[in-house]
Amino acid sequence: MANPLFSFSLLILSLATMQGTHAVYYAINDKTGNSGGGVRFRNQIGAANSLQTMSAATNFIWNIFKQNNPSDRKNVAKVTLFIENSNGVAFAVNNEIHVNANYLGNYTGDLRREFNGVLYHEMTHIWQWNGNGQTPGGLIEGIADFVRLKANYIPSHWVKPGQGNRWDQGYDVTARFLEYCDGLRNGFVAELNKKMRTGYNVGYFVDLLGKTVDQLWRDYKAKYGN
Ligand SMILES: *[C@@H]1O[C@H](CO)[C@@H](O)[C@H](O)[C@H]1NC(C)=O
């Protein structure tokens, strides 16, 4: 029989972050019922920690993107985290983050670290510009993992610096490459994101770093002897 405490499908807690007159509200909707992953989520992470991490991630991301003023940022009033029994790991859509409790339930290793890393990645999708839909998916995912890297939530399975086949392969490969680019020009990722507010052009790499992205990728590979 279902535990009556968790038999309702909706648990909402909210946390608001005041930023001047602008507030971002965070909510969590735990739809896991009595699944093993849901129980593990509530025992080892919990709603309050989740909301705090969402808020901390937001401030971290605004800082990485050098968005000091509300006018620099995407206009998002509320972000809702859904914990649900589904597939895959997590995704972000319509100011919602969806995390798969089955993934959490089966995770071996430091669950809090992994969960935080996933939230930093997904929260970046909430806040990053996407060039009005023109930015390649690999770059979008690479920036989300760049933020995760900068927050020091790097999973053990990630590629090492210099590894990978293409600059826009996405995720860890692109994140490592963006870290290299950021090393050439401090704040590069922030400036790239800013440019993507209105559109996307691969020439943004030339604008900011004076070289084509293909040349930068060759330089990057050469630096690590690949
Ligand atoms: C592990 O994953 C399987 C398949 O998604 C799922 O059925 C099972 O409930 C998960 N285990 C836990 C403890 O969440």
UniProtKB/TrEMBL annotation:
Protease is among the record's keywords: yes
Organism domain of life: Eukaryota
GO terms of molecular function: peptidase activity
Keyword Nuclease part of the UniProt annotation: no
Pfam families linked: BSP
Keywords: Hydrolase, Protease, Signal
GO annotation terms (biological process): proteolysis
Signal sequence coordinates: 1-23
Transmembrane segments: none
PANTHER family registered for this protein in UniProt: PLANT BASIC SECRETORY PROTEIN (BSP) FAMILY PROTEIN, PTHR33321
The protein's name in its UniProt record: Basic secretory protease
Annotated organism of origin: Hibiscus syriacus (Rose of Sharon)
